[in-house]
Amino acid sequence: MAKPVLLMTGPMPPIIDRGLRQTFDCHQLPPKGRTGTAAAGTETPEALLARIGPAVEAVCTGGHTGVKTDEALMAALPGLKVIANLGVGYDSIDVAAAARRGIVVANTPDVLTDEVADTALGLLLMTVREMSKAEAYLRAGRWAKEGDYRLSTASLRDRSVGIIGLGRIGKAIARRCEAFGLPVSYCGRRPQADVTYAYHADPVSLAKAVDTLIAVIPGGAETRNIVDAQVLEALGPRGIFINVARGTIVDEAALIDALRTGKILAAGLDVFVGEPSFNPNFLTLENAVLLPHIGSASILTRERMGQLVVDNLAAYANRKPPLSPVAETPFSGWGG
Ligand code: DGY
Fold this sequence. Notes:
Layout (H helix, E strand, L loop, with lengths): L4 E4 L5 H8 L3 E4 L16 H8 L3 E7 L8 H5 L6 E5 L8 H6 L3 E3 L6 H16 L2 H9 L2 H5 L14 E4 L3 H12 L4 E4 L10 E3 L2 H7 L2 E4 L13 H7 L4 E4 L8 H10 L4 E4 L18 E3 L8 H19 L19
Parallel strand pairs: 1-2, 1-3, 3-4, 4-5, 6-7, 6-9, 7-8, 9-10, 10-11, 11-12
Helix pairs in contact: 1-12, 5-8, 9-10
The protein binds (2R)-2,3-dihydroxypropanoic acid (DGY).
């Protein structure tokens, strides 16, 4: 029997590549702007879609490919049944369009929760205690010549944390904050029955109540610029902002202004609008710690995420329910 046809929207880690080729007839979308022919191995994305699009039943994607799995791409794949995303965040997929078309979207929750929570706490410590600047001071040979690195302005000892988005990862961050002796508050769509942390209905109210904000909400239209000039103003001059969510959840121009003018003290950022490119003004800020989106990026966790992608797609090939469909596209059978 012929293998079902699968489209990868870009290069995938070996664990996914190997795992999928056993079950699927795999094709990789060429980079945008490429010109050439299939025979020369330089086919354009448009030509590939015209050639194999009608046969594609499954898509494997991830934010790292830079490709949006939007209505236009879905329209070019009329037989599409399942989209598996490498990542818990699926803001690069139009899930409303997928739901309308009866396509199941699956992501990689749980397997990365602790890794991303660790990253958030690492970034918080680096930012509060100026660790990357202190290391650069040592590496530049300044310790012996100029004396001890200066005392950090901030300390975790007198801080309180507000978490924007108390989902699985938010709760893992909250547990770590509690272990550090930090009082925790949160904001979200509604109060959660299974936690005792103080609830705030909106980010401005949360920012007023704390001096350290950690954002870990999903990206997308609903949360765009949810951290804006008003929130940063409310956080105040002692304020520290940590973002392990998506670059789009913060108004980056307002953040750069707040860091430059002392409206807040410092920021630690793992995510940026337009990454891997980002606003170069961030590089001019002494009070920002910048990481290249390493939230879940350990070999162990990425292998677990990759395996879950493979397992979700294998479930489709074997007519079994997907392991981790997203809430917007609940599974009700594979149809046809
Ligand atoms: C995800 O999986 O969406 C996160 O960005 C991991 O860093």
